[in-house]
């Protein structure tokens, strides 16, 4: 849906610019140029974002220790169990314990983890987190992720966030809920991805434990390398804004809601 919004908005702007410069015939020209811009942007955004946050491709050869190599083995098994193409995995050197995903199931998604994730979670808990991100990719919820993040980087660097939000009528930058008025409806995609992770890992308690640990971890960590990329906070497996809600008003904690939903899942019994 977000990708469709971006495409429609870009075509609309291109058509209006073409109309203003060339008259009625300029609509087709402007829309064509705008469509080309979206295509280039879509294909270049992922590498731009990964380079911007200092992410490096994690392979058997580039893994710096046995823990990372073990992680890759577990992750590839999950990818196979999920029925997805062989996804690529990237790592960012930061104590901030987060994970997020980019891309689609068809083109091959990319899952980004941080070194901080390995310091906070156990091997099984990390697998559950990867299962969560694969759930987002399989559901098609990460199709325009890189485009969104690249916009976030641009807006933060140029100060255009407020201006663009007005010009796009909120289509490119939907207002995030405030901490005091968090809507549990925004957790829909996350709770679906949680259920997918549980179905892969076959254990409800592992993901619940991982989410609780990550909530404490992101609450106490500094964003350092991610500070110029605010959109990642919204895409991380545990949103820091949600973690703050849990700290300030535990009775309204979105994380408590997610964990409760996880614990209500009933796994099919083995035959």
What can you see in these coordinates?
There is one protein chain. The protein contains 12 helices and 4 strands; from the N terminus they run H-H-E-H-E-E-E-H-H-H-H-H-H-H-H-H. The longest helix has 27 residues, at 26-52. The chain starts with a helix and ends in an 8-residue tail after the last helix. Helix 2 crosses helix 6, helix 3 (66-81) crosses helix 5 and helix 9 (204-220) runs antiparallel to helix 12. Strand 3 and strand 4 form a beta hairpin. Residues 163-184 have low confidence and may be disordered. The protein is globular. It is mainly alpha-helical and 271 residues long. It folds into 2 domains: 2-52; 56-148 and 170-263, Zincin-like (2-Layer Sandwich), CATH 3.30.2010.10. The protein has a 4-stranded mixed beta sheet with strand order 1-2-4-3, with helices on both faces. It has helices at 2-22, 26-52, 66-81, 115-120, 123-138, 145-158, 161-167, 188-201, 204-220, 231-235, 240-248, 254-263, and strands at residues 56-57, 88-92, 99-102, 110-114.
Structural class: mainly alpha
The residue-averaged pLDDT reads 80
The arrangement of helices and strands along the chain is HHEHEEEHHHHHHHHH
Portion of residues in beta strands equals 5-15%
From the N-terminal CA to the C-terminal CA, the straight-line distance is: 39 Å
The CATH architecture term of the largest domain is 2-Layer Sandwich
Unreliable spans: 163-184
What is the overall shape? globular
| Biggest beta-sheet profile | 4 strands, mixed
Helix content: 55-70%
CATH topology type of the largest domain:
Zincin-like
DSSP E strands, number = 4
CATH homologous superfamily annotation of the largest domain = Metalloproteases ("zincins"), catalytic domain
What count of structural domains? Answer: 2
Q: Give me the number of helical elements.
A: 12
Across the major sheet, the strand order is 1-2-4-3
Rg to the nearest angstrom? 20 Å
According to CATH, what is the class of the largest domain? Alpha Beta
